[in-house]
């Protein structure tokens, strides 16, 4: 074979090998997906973010469920308190009407009486009563002769005498706080009446021998310039308070005063009033009933 023929045979063999290789490669297929490192990083980060979001959502749902349960429990507790308060309020009203002592009230009312003061409900009741009184006196005016009078019951607005026993310390503190709140309300009304030109007559069930002590209490508390201070006569029976107030009413009318309103936290002072006289009952906590009944 010549040199030319040998060269052609080598070229033909090379083409044959190259063609076979091309045919084999055309039938090769690889399964799966191919990720670059950057794409893989983004995919892992997305999975982590989704997991974190799911955990956050579960925590939020748990917190909302707990909050809902707490609110429902609060509503139930409030309903129980309101129910007990209404229950004791009815008992307290009948005790006041019949002049009963604290041992006639259910035991559940003792704790509620303390809560009534410390929880601020008594202060709110006083403010509401003050609004009712002010609404009335904004619509009426006293005459120019100075004889239109407002009667104010001052019993129960000064601190009680201290007790040596600590057994009822909580109740005593309750009464002290209640009397301070009531005294501030009565003083505010008193000053408004004075500014409005009303004559003010103060009533007390204490005997006349305590007049100087009572005056000192009044002046120290800011009460000044009243028209008259009416107290129980020495020979009057302290258990017959209606008779005491009837006598005082007669004396006041004899002096020419026209009684336009009576303000008190006690039923006996309001029961003797004639029709046409506007009467206002100040709210009175029941904890003092338990103080009286401790013996």
CA distance, first residue to last residue: 146 Å
Strand order of the largest sheet: 3-2-1-4-5
Count of DSSP-assigned helices: 9
Count all strands and give the number: 5
Average pLDDT confidence is 74
Poorly predicted regions: 14-29, 72-79, 161-168
**Can you tell me the overall shape?**
elongated
Structural class: alpha/beta
Cα radius of gyration in angstroms: 44 Å
Report the biggest beta sheet as strand number plus sense, adding barrel if it closes.
Answer: 5 strands, parallel
The share of residues in extended strands comes to 5-15%
The percent of residues in helical segments reads: 55-70%
H and E string: HHHHEHEHEHEHEH
Fold topology:
Elements: H1 3-25, H2 37-97, H3 108-118, H4 121-137, E1 148-153, H5 169-195, E2 199-207, H6 211-221, E3 228-232, H7 241-254, E4 258-264, H8 267-271, E5 278-281, H9 287-292
Parallel strand pairs: 1-2, 1-4, 2-3, 4-5
Describe this structure in words.
This protein is an alpha/beta fold and 295 residues long. It contains 9 helices and 5 strands, in the order ααααβαβαβαβαβα. It has helices spanning 3-25, 37-97, 108-118, 121-137, 169-195, 211-221, 241-254, 267-271, 287-292, and strands at 148-153, 199-207, 228-232, 258-264, 278-281. It has a 5-stranded parallel sheet with strand order 3-2-1-4-5, sandwiched between helices. Helix 8 (267-271) links the parallel strand 4 and strand 5 (278-281). The longest helix has 61 residues, at 37-97. The protein is elongated and about 110 Å long. Residues 14-29, 72-79 and 161-168 have low confidence and may be disordered.
């Amino acid at each position: 074979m010549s040199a030319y023929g040998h060269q052609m045979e080598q070229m033909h063999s090379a083409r044959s090998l190259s063609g076979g290789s091309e045919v084999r490669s055309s039938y090769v297929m690889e399964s799966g997906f191919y990720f670059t490192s950057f794409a893989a990083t983004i995919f892992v980060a997305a999975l982590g973010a989704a997991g974190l979001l799911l955990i956050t959502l579960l925590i939020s749902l748990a917190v909302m469920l707990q909050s809902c349960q707490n609110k429902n429990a609060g509503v139930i507790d409030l309903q129980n308190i309101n129910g007990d308060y209404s229950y004791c309020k009815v008992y307290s009203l009948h005790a006041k009407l019949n002049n009963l002592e604290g041992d006639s009230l259910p035991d559940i009312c003792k704790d509620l009486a303390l809560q009534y003061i410390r929880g601020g409900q008594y202060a709110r009741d006083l403010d509401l009563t003050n609004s009712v009184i002010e609404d009335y006196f904004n619509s009426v005016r006293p005459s120019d002769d100075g004889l239109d009078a407002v009667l104010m019951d001052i019993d129960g607005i000064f601190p009680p005498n201290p007790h040596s026993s600590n057994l009822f310390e909580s109740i005593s503190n309750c009464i002290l706080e209640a009397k301070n709140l009531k005294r501030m309300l009565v003083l505010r009304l008193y000053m408004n009446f004075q500014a409005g030109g009303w004559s003010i007559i103060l009533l007390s069930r204490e005997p006349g021998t305590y007049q100087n002590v009572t005056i000192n209490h009044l002046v120290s508390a800011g009460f000044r310039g009243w028209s008259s201070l009416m107290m129980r006569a020495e020979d009057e029976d302290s258990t017959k308070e209606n008779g005491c107030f009837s006598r005082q009413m007669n004396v006041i009318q004899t002096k020419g005063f026209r009684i336009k309103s009576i303000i008190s936290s006690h039923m006996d002072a309001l029961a003797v009033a004639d029709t046409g006289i506007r009467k206002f009952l100040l709210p009175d906590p029941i904890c003092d009933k338990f103080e009286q009944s401790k013996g």
